[in-house]
Amino acid sequence: MLTTKAQTGGNGAGEMRSGTLNAAAFAARLDTVVADMEALLDGLLGAAPLAGERSRPARLLDAMRYASLGGGKRFRPFLAVESAALFGAPRERALMVGAAVELVHCYSLAHDDLPAMDNDDLRRGRPTTHKAFDEATAILAGDALLTLAFDLLARPETHPDAGVRIELVLALARASGLGGMVGGQMIDLAAEGRFAGGEPQRLDRQATETLEAMKTGALLRFSCAGGAILAQADGAARAALDRYGTAIGKAFQVADDLLDAEGDPATVGKATNKDAAAHKATLVSIMGIDGARRALADLVAEAEAALAPFGADGEVLRAAARFVAERSH
Amino acid sequence: MLTTKAQTGGNGAGEMRSGTLNAAAFAARLDTVVADMEALLDGLLGAAPLAGERSRPARLLDAMRYASLGGGKRFRPFLAVESAALFGAPRERALMVGAAVELVHCYSLAHDDLPAMDNDDLRRGRPTTHKAFDEATAILAGDALLTLAFDLLARPETHPDAGVRIELVLALARASGLGGMVGGQMIDLAAEGRFAGGEPQRLDRQATETLEAMKTGALLRFSCAGGAILAQADGAARAALDRYGTAIGKAFQVADDLLDAEGDPATVGKATNKDAAAHKATLVSIMGIDGARRALADLVAEAEAALAPFGADGEVLRAAARFVAERSH
Asked: What is the interface pTM, i.e. ipTM, of the complex?
C-alpha cells in the first residue's frame, strides 16, 4: 500500500476507513465541496481590485459570477479535494486547485454555448451566459475566467512552494488548451461538419475516444493529478491516481452520453437528445445503450481497481466512480 | 545609476552606449526581434504534441498560426527583450516572455475582431481570423493561444527558478484579465452603448485614461515588467521600468488614436476613422489633434526620463519611445 495520510497522521477521510461509503454519506461529502466552492468563488470574484489590477468592471464581474456561481455539481473540485485529501494535503489549498479547474470548466461552458459553437440557450436550467447578458460579454467573461484560473494557481495561498504552483500551471495549461480540452471541442465541431464544405462524419470508436479524452477527460484527469501534485505525492501514487482519473473521465463521458440519449430535459437542466439530432458519434451511438452501460460498469470497476494501493483511504474516490455511473439513470 | 549589464559583464546593447540610436539602427534591432519571434512561435506551434497533450488538431493549430504568425510589429516582445537586456538576462529566456505576451495580444485581436465584438474584417491587411476560418474556430484559437501563453511561462526554459516563472504567470494574469486587458475591452464596449438599453456615452478624460490603461496599457507595462522580473532586477530598477512602461503604454494608445483619426487604411492595414464613427471617447476626441500631439510628446519625454537611472544602456528603450510617437505620422 502506498503511503497516505492514514500513515502520516493526516485526517479527513478517517470515518470511511472501515468500509463502503453509502450514497447519503457520499452526497454529504460532495455537498460540503459544493458549499466550500461557492464560498471560495464568491470571495475570489469580489469587487475590490487586487495588486496589479486597475479596476473590476461591474458588468464583466457580474457575467463571470453568473457563469461560475450558483450551480454545477463541482465534480472537478471534488476530485481535486479528495485526491489531495488522500495524502493529507491542507483542504484550503486543494480548494484553490479545485477553483482553478472549475473556472476553466465554467469558461468552456460559456464559450461552447455561444451561437457560433453549440448554440445552447439553457444550461443548468437557466439561460446560458450569452442569453442572460450578450455574446460579447459571454466571450469576455470566458476569457477572464480562464485567465483567473492561472492567477489562482500562481498565488502563494495555493502552495508555499513555487515549484508546486508552476507544476500545477503547466499541467492545467496542457489539459485545457490546444492538445486538451479546446482541441477536443475543435475535433467535435469538425466532426459535426460545421465548417465550409464539411459534412458530418461518423467518427470511429478510436477517434471518438480521442475526442472525449481531450474534450472532457483531460480536465477530469487534471483534477485528480492536481491533488497529487499539490500533495507532492510520489510517482507510484501519481500513476495510480492518473489511472483512476483516466477511467473516471471516460466513465463521466459515457454517463453524459447516456443521459443525453435517455434523459428528460427537465431533470437534466439542458436540452437532451442533441447528439442523435446532430448525428454525433458517441460511445452510445457506436455501442448502443446496452453496450454503453456495460462499458460504463467496466470503467467504474477500472477506476475502483486503480485505487487499490490506497486501501480503505480510497473509498471516497471509489464512491465517486459509482456516483458518476448512477447519474446516468 | 542602477546596476545594469554594463557593470555586470552582460552584453547586447553595448554599441549604443556612446550616444543616440538613429532610426535605422533602431529598426534593425526591432527587425531582429520580429525575426526571432516568428521563428520561436513557428517552432512552438508545431504539429507534434508535447507531454500532457493528446494530439494537436490541424484546423485549430492552423488558426492559431494564422492569428499569431506572419505579421505584427512584435512591439511587446521587443519591450520584453530590451527590458531584460538592460540587466544582461539571456535573450532566449526573454524571447519566451515576449512570446507569451505576444500570444495574449494575438488572442485578444482574434476575439476583439469577432462580429459580436468589434466586427472587423481586416487586420494587418489580411482577413481577420474568423473571416479566414469561421467564428467558432476563431474563438477556440483565441482560447488556446491564451492558454499557451501561460504554458510557455511555466516551462523551465523560460527560467530555471520556478519562483521567477510563477511571478511571471501572476503578473501576466493580472495584466490580461478582469482587472486588466479584458476588463478594458468590456469598458470600451459598454461606453459604445453596445448593451441592452445602453446609449453611447462620451467618457471623460479620467475614465478614458482608465479604459486605455487597462485595454492596451496593462500588457505593454507587463512587457517591460516581465523583462525586469525575468532578470530578477532590484526594486528601484523595477520601479523605473514600470514608470517607463506606463508612459510608453499611454503614448502607444495616443499614437494609435491619432493614426485612427488621420491615417490611411491602406497604410495602416485596417479600417480607420472608426473611433469618430463610433462616437468613441479617445484622448484625440477629448483634446483635439494638436492637444493629443502635445500629450504624446510629453509622454515620450516622460518615458525617456524614466530611463535616466540606466544611463546610456537605456538608449534602445528611449529610441522605442520615439518610435511609438513617429508611427502616428
From this structure: 0.92
